[in-house]
Write a structure and sequence with these properties.
The chain has eight helices and 22 strands. The protein is α+β, with helices and mostly antiparallel strands. Strands 11-10-12-13-22-21-20-16-17 form a nine-stranded mixed β-sheet, with helices on both faces. It has a four-stranded antiparallel β-sheet with strand order 5-4-7-8, with no helix packed on it. Strands 6-1-9 form a three-stranded mixed β-sheet, with no helix packed on it. The longest helix has 16 residues.
């Protein structure tokens, strides 16, 4: 009987020391547990009984983590040999709210057969066929805004984006510099965007912002309304350098009408205005009129057609002469002669809206704006511009 008990005790001891049955020493009475920091795994001192020293050579193996990382997300699998691309995907792309459709938006579908692309039409709609069945990843983009969605492509049938799968504003930060004769913030608010605002009609506000490159860098898009104060010109070299650096780093800028000189002084090779480009305000010669403008940009044409009614309800707007930039909208208009009142008026065919890239960023200028002179066409064009930045 004693021999049986002794054997049983030896078996128990073997079970405790075997690495197949390590006991939880921390649960034993009188044993102090060491507090741990999430993500760490302190190595307790086991002495001669280290359960990870399998060969008793004084070294230990690697402990398995307490919380192993989740498995990677599934990726679309390559199609089986001989498989046919029989699936399709369609939908209407919107931003923030289903009522805000995105024309000219980019759709990227990573499916089992590779990458497919589409551009939304004037109603924000797209249709892509020739897709392999299985899981797919859809990326929707417009300007600085994007979102990623997971969808399933089905064999021999159309799949559809959910009605409310809108692009969110996300972490895109927007600043509006207010002016006397424009209110781009009204368009942003109507479409559900959030933004910061400074009143550029107050002394020093706009110039202090433009001189603070760190503050500017907090924003992805900056809107300069027509009619903000021009005190920045007393520090023109520093301000224009800041704006160039901001755009070069990927920032987007929109300037309307009288804000033209900030763009002209910062990027003098892009737009040529009526009058002397070296003299601030010399381009303010546009007369009050309604212009039947030609819409050049393809995405804008989807929205309003080949022509747009532009109501220049206030005279002395800044008139462009020509550009090396991309022309978005162009028209024929009359302007006062910058040489003086005793010279005949000018009839000019020139851009009314331009766009150019500078390194990683973008700049858009429009001679028209939305306060006191907006038409249906102008609202649609300005909304398109907002979504392109």
């Amino acid at each position: 009987m004693r021999l049986f008990a002794l054997a049983f005790s030896l078996l128990g001891l073997f079970a405790c020391t075997s690495d197949q049955g390590v006991s939880n020493l921390g649960d034993s009475p009188g044993v102090q547990q060491t507090p741990t920091t999430p993500g760490t795994d302190p190595e307790p001192d086991y002495g001669d009984r280290d359960p990870l020293d399998d060969d008793d050579d004084g070294t230990t193996g690697t402990r398995p983590p307490r919380n192993p990382p989740p498995p990677p997300a599934p990726t679309p699998q390559p199609p089986a040999p001989g498989a046919d691309p029989t699936g399709a995907l369609d939908g209407t792309v919107c931003i923030i709210d289903p009522s805000n459709i995105v024309s000219g938006g980019r759709v990227e579908v990573q499916h089992a057969g590779g990458m497919a692309y589409a551009v939304t039409d004037g109603n924000g709609y797209f249709y892509l066929d020739g897709l392999f069945p299985g899981q797919a990843t859809v990326t929707l983009r417009t300007g600085s805004f994007s979102t990623v969605l997971d969808v399933t492509i089905y064999d021999g049938m159309d799949s559809h984006l959910a009605y409310d799968s809108c692009i969110p504003q996300g972490d895109v930060e927007i600043m509006v510099v207010g002016g006397e004769y424009d209110d781009i913030g009204a368009i942003l608010s109507t479409d559900g965007f959030t933004y910061d605002y400074i009143d550029g009609t107050l002394p020093g506000v706009a110039s202090n912002f433009l001189l603070n490159s760190a503050q500017m860098a907090q924003y992805d898009i900056i809107f300069f309304n027509c009619g903000f104060r021009d005190e920045w010109m007393s520090s023109q070299a520093a301000v224009t350098a800041n704006l160039r650096n901001y755009v070069a780093a990927g920032g987007s800028v929109y300037a309307s009408d009288w804000a033209y000189y900030l763009v002209e002084a910062s990027f003098p090779s892009q737009n040529t205005f009526v009058g002397n480009d070296a003299v601030a305000g010399d381009a303010k010669v546009g007369q009050e009129q309604i212009i039947n403008a030609s819409v050049i940009d393809a995405g804008m044409r989807q929205l309003v057609g080949p022509t747009a009614t532009i109501d220049m309800a206030l005279e002395d707007w800044a008139a462009l002469q020509s550009t090396t930039s991309t022309v978005l909208v162009q028209g024929t208009f009359t302007a006062y002669n910058p040489q003086g009142w005793n010279y005949p008026d000018l009839t000019i065919t020139a851009p009314l809206a331009t766009e150019f890239t500078y390194s990683q960023g973008k700049v858009v200028y429009t001679a028209f704006h939305n306060e006191g002179q907006n038409t249906f066409d102008m609202d649609a064009l300005l909304k398109k511009i907002v979504l392109s930045l």
